[in-house]
Amino acid sequence: MSNRTMKAMRVAECGGPEKLLLDQIAIPQPAAGQVLVKIAAIGVNFIDIYFRSGLYKADLPITLGMEASGVVEAIGEGVTGLVPGDRVAYSMQRGSYAEYAVVPAWQLVKVPLAVNFQQAAAVMLQGMTAHYLTHSTFPLTSEHTALVHAAAGGTGQLVVQMAKMRGATVIATVGSAEKVALAKAAGADHVILYNEQDFAVESKALTGGKGVHVVFDSVGASTFMKGLDSLRPRGMMVTFGNASGPVPAIEPLLLNTKGALFLTRPTLFHYCQDQQEVNWRAGDVLGWIADGKLKVHIGGTYKLADAAQAHIDLASRKTTGKLLLTLD
Ligand code: NDP
Prior knowledge:
Blueprint: E1 5-11, E2 20-26, E3 34-44, H1 46-53, E4 62-63, E5 67-75, E6 87-91, E7 100-104, E8 109-110, H2 117-137, E9 145-148, H3 154-165, E10 169-174, H4 177-185, E11 190-193, H5 199-206, E12 212-217, H6 224-230, E13 231-239, H7 253-257, E14 262-264, H8 275-290, E15 298-303, H9 307-315, E16 322-326
Parallel strand pairs: 9-10, 9-12, 10-11, 12-13, 13-14, 15-16
Antiparallel strand pairs: 1-2, 1-4, 3-5, 3-7, 3-16, 5-6, 6-8
Helix pairs in contact: 2-3, 2-8, 5-6
NADPH dihydro-nicotinamide-adenine-dinucleotide phosphate binds at residues 45-47, 125-126, 129, 150, 152-156, 174-176, 179, 218-219, 222, 240-244, 266-268, 314-315, 317, 319.
């Protein structure tokens, strides 16, 4: 096994998409507690752009990518419950932009037969994120109104669908007229074009002047402050992404003056702390896809070698839904 090599998209130096280079490296070997996965489909996420650009730090060189589905090729010592040939998926382990990846066994979930590899690779990271946001960070009920930014995006469409599954009212924002239909198809009750309309004013108007209970903000710098103005007293700002850049520092006193607000900056990793939590979230998400209750919208597929183009497209706001890399 150790003499065999594989294709991998690697970053040796942080920078633009051109820093993402196709390499031929040794297939890794699973150590104790690890599993070697032969990858079938790879999820592209904004976090890959952050590791490539250097916004998020890593010791270089790295193989990019945090999410994939595939087949168990080999298992390390002590691994139970998985055997070669099992269909699996995972997220939160870097190195998926490759033909094979070594993954801690506890992070892998078995993929139901009714879910194909592309669907599984599309929802492990963004689906589990939507799950923790709507079920744990702010457990939504039919009493709540949520504001969801970038609702036609990969994470956004899933957050909207899960918020609706929990009975909440959803106000969605999107960046272009073409994206309105996607937010509505995901179940949004109201859609705001936030490049043209003031979403704080609209959110207040749609809630009888009160404001929303929670803002799910993946956009960051350009929406954060106005998000605080969209909340009702004691509402919660959940800033979970930086698509437009990281949110600058604020004084805690601001949360006082804006209405005794709650502020959290969650990450998937901290909401998937052990195998039980991964199995709960991924089990729900994959189960809902198998049952047809959750739709995954794949907005584009690219060859592994074209990962840079996927990054360019994702950062340009042109894409909708989930982007995948394939190994065909
Ligand atoms: P999306 O598919 O949502 O793509 C990003 C979208 O953000 C764009 O399509 C665009 O939608 C909107 N956007 C607004 N301003 C900008 C801008 N200046 N540049 C680029 N996009 C912009 O991406 P993802 O679902 O992969 O990720 C969204 C964010 O959520 C990322 O920051 C990611 O890191 C974060 N995230 C965080 C997680 C966590 O656990 N904390 C987990 C998963 C994702 P529009 O045109 O409608 O404005």
